[in-house]
Design brief:
Elements (H helix, E strand, L loop, with lengths): L2 H21 L22 E6 L5 E5 L4 E5 L5 E5 L12 E6 L5 E5 L4 E5 L5 E5 L14 E4 L5 E5 L4 E5 L5 E5 L19
Antiparallel strand pairs: 1-2, 2-3, 3-4, 5-6, 6-7, 7-8, 9-10, 10-11, 11-12
C-alpha cells in the first residue's frame, strides 16, 4: 500500500472513530408536550420547528394549517393564524423561520407561497405563486433567514433555492435538477449559516 493510500485510510479511520464516539454519547430525555388533536397545544402533523431570539419554540403543523408558539419550557403561548383573519390562511405549512425582528415566515406549500406574520401573529405579507419563474414556487418545503434578514426558500419541485429580501422582493436563485455540484433533487429543507 502506497503512502498516499495509508494517509487516506488513516484520515478515514479517524473520521469513522470520531463519528462513532459522537454517536456513542448518552442522551437524556428532557421533555415532551402536545397531544394529537386540533386544539391549542396539540398537533396533527407537525413538520417544521424553529426558535426565536428568546428561545421560544415555533412549530408548523401541516394538517392543522397553522403554526404555534411555545415558551422555552414548552408552555403554549399562541396559535396562528386565527380563522377570522382574511389572507392569513395557511394550506399545508411545511416549515417556518423567525427573523431577528420577530417576524415569522411560513412556507405555504400547497398554495406555493410564503406568508409573513408579526411577532403577535398578525398577517402582513404574502409572496409567490405557482410557477417556474423568479419568485414563483412549486411546493416549497423549507425556509430559513440569514443575519441580514434575507429569506431563503427550498423551492422543492423546481429543484432550486430562491433568495428574497424581508419584504419578499426576489433577489436570486440557484440550482437546477441533477446530481452534479450546484444541482438538486427535490430539496426539502435548508439551513443558512
Amino acid at each position: 500500500m502506497g503512502e498516499e493510500m495509508k494517509r487516506i485510510l488513516i484520515v478515514f479511520l479517524l473520521v469513522i472513530g470520531m463519528t462513532t464516539v459522537g454517536w456513542a454519547q448518552d442522551y437524556e430525555f428532557v421533555k415532551k408536550w402536545g397531544d394529537c388533536g386540533r386544539w391549542d397545544g396539540a398537533f396533527q402533523y407537525p413538520m417544521g420547528i424553529t426558535l426565536d431570539a428568546r428561545r421560544n419554540i415555533y412549530v408548523a403543523d401541516k394538517q392543522n394549517n397553522s403554526f404555534q408558539k411555545f415558551d422555552p419550557e414548552g408552555n403554549f403561548i399562541a396559535r396562528w393564524p386565527r380563522e377570522s383573519e382574511l389572507g392569513a390562511e395557511l394550506y399545508y405549512p411545511y416549515d417556518l423561520t423567525v427573523d431577528m425582528l420577530g417576524y415569522t415566515y411560513v412556507v405555504n406549500s400547497y398554495s406555493h407561497s410564503v406568508k409573513k406574520f408579526t411577532s403577535q401573529g398578525k398577517f402582513v405579507a404574502r409572496w409567490g405563486t405557482e410557477g417556474q419563474g423568479d419568485g414563483q414556487f412549486s411546493y416549497p418545503f423549507g425556509i430559513d433567514v440569514d443575519a441580514w434578514g434575507n429569506i431563503y426558500v427550498a423551492d422543492t419541485k423546481n429543484n432550486r433555492i430562491q433568495k428574497f429580501d424581508s419584504q419578499g422582493k426576489f433577489l436570486l436563485s440557484f440550482g437546477k435538477e441533477g446530481k452534479k455540484e450546484g444541482e438538486f433533487r427535490v430539496p426539502s429543507n435548508l439551513t443558512v449559516d
